[in-house]
Design a protein that fits this description.
The chain has about 350 residues and is mainly α. The chain has one domain (about 5-335). The chain is about 75% helix and about 0% strand. It has helices at about 5-20, 35-55, 60-90, 100-105, 110-115, 125-150, 155-175, 180-185, 185-190, 190-205, 210-215, 220, 225-230, 240-260, 265-270, 275-280, 285-300, 305-335. α3 (about 60-90) packs antiparallel against α4 (about 100-105).
C-alpha cells in the first residue's frame, strides 16, 4: 500500500475531537463521534492489507497478522498500563480498583466490562481499543470465509450486507430500551464503522467497474462534510439518535473522506496532509492511550480551557516518548519478521 499522509491527518482530526469531548469543551459534547472516524479508518486499512496479502499469496497468514498487530499495539499499551499501575495510587489515593482496571484493559475486555460492570473507570477510554481488538480477532477468518464463497469483485456486497445487519442489531437494542452506555461501548453494537471501512477496502482493492464512477462523483459525497456539524450538533450523551443516525452519518463521512483523498490530490488531501496534522496522526494511538488520565487529573483542578491548553501537549509528549522508544523498537521487530512493510499503520482509537 502506498503511504497516504492524509489518512494520518484524518487520525489527527479524530483524536482532537475525542480529546475535546473528554475535556468537556463547550459545543463539543458530541465530539465522541471522533472515535467512529478511527473505526472506519481501521476497518479500511486492515482489510486493505489482508486483501492485498490474499491477492499475492492466495491465503492469509493468521499467525503473522496477529503477531504484527500485537507488536504494533501491545508494547505501547503495556507501557501505559505499567505507568498507570505505578502512579495512579499516588495521584488518586482513593482508587481501590487499579489492579482490576489494569487487568481488564490488558485483556481487551473493557468494552463489555464498562457496558455491564462499570469497569474500568479511570481507564474508561480503553473500551474502543477492546472493540478494535475484537474486530482483529474475528474479521480475518470471517474474511477468508467470504472470499471462499464470493467473487472478488463482488466481495463488497456481503460485507455491506453485514454493515446493514449490524445496524439493524444496534437499532433492535435501542428499540428495546437498553441503556445508552450498554449499547455505546460494546463491540457487537459498534462494529458498523469497521465493517463499512472493510466494504470500502473491498471496493478499493478489487475495483469493480463502478469505482471510477464513484470517484467522478466524489464532489457530491464531499457535501457530507459541511452537513455533518449541523446534522450531529444536537446529539449528545444519552441520546438514542446518536446511536442510530449519528454514528451512521459520521461513518459515511469517514468513508467519503477516504474516497476523496485516495488519489492523493485535491484541496481536502492538501488540508489533511499538513505536516503538523500528519505528525499528530502518527502519534494518535499514543495520545489516545495517555490523554484520558491526564484530562481527568486536569479537569479536577482547572477549567476546560486549561485542560485543552495543557492536556493535549502533555499527552502528545507522553505519546512521543512512547513512540520513539518502545514502539519504534517493536515496529522494528515487526517489520523484520515479515517480507514486506505495510506503509500505513492501522492503530487503536482507535479507534481508534
Amino acid at each position: 500500500m502506498k503511504y497516504n499522509p492524509a489518512l494520518d491527518g484524518m487520525r489527527a482530526v479524530a483524536i482532537v475531537l475525542v480529546f475535546l469531548s473528554h475535556a468537556h469543551a463547550p459545543m463539543f459534547d458530541g465530539a465522541f463521534f471522533g472515535v467512529d472516524l478511527f473505526f472506519v479508518l481501521s476497518g479500511f486499512l486492515i482489510t486493505s492489507l489482508l486483501l492485498k496479502e490474499h491477492q499475492q499469496s492466495g491465503r492469509l497468514d493468521f499467525w503473522r497478522f496477529y503477531k504484527r498487530r500485537f507488536l504494533r499495539l501491545g508494547p505501547a499499551l503495556l507501557l501505559f498500563l505499567a505507568a498507570y499501575w505505578l502512579f495512579a495510587p499516588l495521584i488518586w489515593p482513593g482508587l481501590d480498583d487499579v489492579n482490576q482496571d489494569v487487568v481488564v484493559s490488558a485483556l481487551y475486555l473493557a468494552d463489555y466490562g464498562i457496558a455491564f460492570f462499570d469497569s474500568p473507570d479511570t481507564l474508561l477510554h480503553m473500551w474502543s481499543l477492546s472493540v478494535e481488538e475484537h474486530f482483529y480477532l474475528i474479521w480475518p477468518p470471517l474474511l477468508v470465509l467470504l472470499l471462499a464463497h464470493t467473487a472478488r469483485k463482488q466481495l463488497w456486497r456481503p460485507v455491506l450486507l453485514l454493515v446493514v445487519l449490524m445496524f439493524v442489531w444496534r437499532a433492535y437494542w435501542v428499540a428495546q430500551g437498553q441503556h445508552f452506555y450498554e449499547i455505546f461501548f460494546r463491540f457487537d453494537t459498534r462494529a458498523t464503522g469497521m465493517l463499512l471501512g472493510s466494504a470500502l477496502a473491498a471496493v478499493a482493492v478489487h475495483r469493480p467497474e463502478w469505482m471510477d464512477a464513484l470517484h467522478a462523483r466524489q464532489k457530491y459525497l464531499l457535501w457530507l462534510l459541511p452537513v455533518l456539524p449541523f446534522a450531529v450538533i444536537g446529539y449528545g450523551w444519552d441520546d438514542a439518535g446518536a446511536l442510530l443516525w449519528g454514528f451512521a452519518l459520521v461513518e459515511l463521512v469517514a468513508a467519503a473522506i477516504i474516497v476523496a483523498v485516495s488519489k492523493q490530490k485535491g484541496v481536502l488531501f492538501d488540508m489533511l496532509s499538513l505536516p503538523a496534522l500528519v505528525w499528530v496522526g502518527k502519534m494518535s494511538y499514543g495520545i489516545y492511550l495517555w490523554h484520558y488520565p491526564v484530562v481527568r487529573l486536569l479537569r479536577a483542578h482547572t477549567d476546560w480551557q486549561w485542560v485543552v491548553i495543557l492536556g493535549l501537549p502533555i499527552s502528545a509528549a507522553f505519546a512521543a516518548l512512547s513512540f520513539y522508544t518502545i514502539e519504534r523498537w517493536a515496529l522494528g521487530l515487526r517489520d523484520r519478521s515479515g517480507s514486506s512493510k505495510p506503509v500505513t499503520q492501522p492503530a487503536g482509537s482507535r479507534t481508534a
